[in-house]
Design a protein that fits this description.
single chain; 489 residues; alpha/beta; Rossmann fold; 22 helices
Length: 489
């Protein structure tokens, strides 16, 4: 059945007045909860923490603010609120603020209904047309958000400047009967934040120069970084007091959640030829987890989830480049590809003073080594690698080129006693495709190095651990830390 196209047709079909937008969202949420449907599809890791709080806010018909560090899916969660809106709602055709045909607010629509009555044309809009989003910046004006006098409209229409027909509606009135989302709220000047008081408390706005209060029907949703990090501004206290629910977001709580998010968001399924081993996905994700707890990295700024997403894409690209040059298939990334992805890591975190001393690239390398060691412990922590270690302690060396073909790498790995006997634990049978075996074998060697069971040098590759050299390095680091403390004191 086609939708009504005039006010008269709509009246015959729709006898009861439409609910407010927050009541509409509450009603649809109740229906989804009762039916056991998935809420906010595509938002992972918040099932037991953030999403229940958002649900409570919607059930309470609250305006909301999401507080969290960068890369915590705040904007995605706001946009997912549109899934709680009706598929279609009627509006007066051509209205800038999506006026309800039964209860028009703007002067143009009131005059139109008075003139044409039941013949007033009606249009239908979907959820995304009812969602207005704005990034707060210091140059945003009250006219951008609320509205202003439009002298050009007055001149063209021959209206007096005091006429409501000369109103220019800002973004907030244009979100009437929908959701208005404002990102990075602290960046909005304090005097502009004051302009939001009325809509949050009394439910209306007043455009400058007009003695008219428009009872806007809208759900207000904000995002912000914690104030102690942004330092570019703050949310004024009276505004915070008017926001019903303040919800804290967070980074993935477990490695499994992080891997799932990165797999969903990263562009890695480029062809059937690309195969990313699970342990390598965990290594890339582990870099982000290690960075979030590393003292050389500023924790207040956070480490965005975009770090592992970008890194994994770079890892696959490096493996893809090597496979194309070597004409090999399938495309299987190796640990050396993770190091090649350093450019996608170093720009994603802010360093503390100690980190600045060693440099972003070295910090990145240390994070990768730490992550490899942790993942290695999970998969191979109980395996006896004594024959492999003894090979290097006996003077053996192994230098693997980053661009070497998989067959050549497997051939080199085969010279290390019993090394390839353990690649099956990583899902790469020793008789399987060479790229899989090469990746697993290199991971084992890197894991042994990360746990200081074997050594590694730029010139000779994997070698025996040089205990004296390690001790000298540790003493050097200790001395550097002592000097740093003296400078601080």
């Amino acid at each position: 059945m086609s939708q009504p196209r005039t006010l008269g047709e709509l009246k015959r079909l729709q006898t009861a007045p439409r609910p407010s937008v927050r009541e509409e969202m509450r009603r649809n949420l109740v229906g989804k909860l009762a039916a056991g449907k998935t809420l906010f599809p595509g938002v992972l890791g918040y099932e037991d923490t953030v999403i229940p709080q958002v649900v409570n806010a919607v059930l309470s018909r609250h305006h909301v603010i999401l507080l969290g560090l960068r890369g915590q899916a705040k904007s995605r969660l706001l946009r997912s609120l549109t899934t709680l809106l009706d598929p279609l709602v009627p509006v007066i055709e051509g209205c800038e603020i999506h006026d309800d045909p039964a209860r028009p607010l703007c002067r143009r629509c009131r005059d139109l209904v008075a003139e044409r009555g039941d013949e007033t044309p009606v249009a239908w809009v979907g959820p995304m047309q009812r969602y207005v989003e704005k990034l707060a910046t210091p140059d945003v004006t009250i006219a951008d958000i609320i509205g202003d006098v439009d002298p050009i409209r007055a001149a063209r229409g021959g209206h007096d400047l005091s006429s409501e027909l000369t109103m220019h509606y800002g973004l907030l009135p244009r979100a009437h009967r929908g959701i208005f989302a404002l990102n990075e709220l602290p960046d909005l000047a304090g005097r502009i934040q004051v302009g939001l008081f009325n809509i949050l408390q009394e439910g209306d706005v007043q455009i400058k120069g007009y003695p008219v209060r428009l009872p806007i029907d809208v759900l207000m949703a904000f995002t912000a970084n914690p104030e102690d990090y942004t330092a570019r501004g703050k949310i004024i206290t009276p505004l915070k007091d008017r926001i019903g629910s303040e919800i804290r977001t967070h980074y993935p709580a477990t490695l499994e959640q992080g891997v799932a998010i990165t797999q969903q968001e990263s562009w890695t399924e480029r062809s059937p030829e690309v195969h990313i081993p699970r342990y390598l996905r965990e290594v890339v994700e582990g870099v982000a987890f290690a960075a979030r707890r590393d003292k050389k990295i500023d924790r207040r700024s956070g480490v965005s989830q975009r770090l592992p997403i970008s890194a994994l894409e770079n890892v696959v690209s490096n493996a893809e480049r090597r496979a194309l040059l070597g004409r090999e298939s399938p495309v299987v990334p190796r640990i050396s590809d993770v190091y090649a992805a350093l450019p996608s890591l170093t720009g994603k975190f802010e360093l503390e003073y100690e980190g600045e001393l060693v440099g972003a690239e070295q910090v990145g390398r240390d994070l990768i080594r730490q992550s490899v060691g942790e993942v290695f412990s999970v998969y191979l922590g109980s395996v006896n690698f004594r024959p492999v270690i003894a090979h290097f302690e006996g003077g053996g060396t192994l230098k693997l080129r980053d661009d070497a073909r998989a067959e050549d790498v497997v051939s080199q790995l085969g010279r290390v006693p019993e090394l390839l006997d353990h690649v099956g634990v990583l899902g790469a049978p020793s008789e399987g495709p060479a790229p899989l075996v090469a990746s697993a074998g290199e991971f084992i060697l890197e894991g042994l190095w990360a746990q200081k069971k074997i050594g590694r040098s730029d010139d000779r590759g994997y070698v025996a651990v040089e205990r004296r050299a390690d001790l000298e390095v540790d003493l050097e680091r200790l001395e550097r830390l002592r000097n740093l403390k003296k400078q601080v004191n």
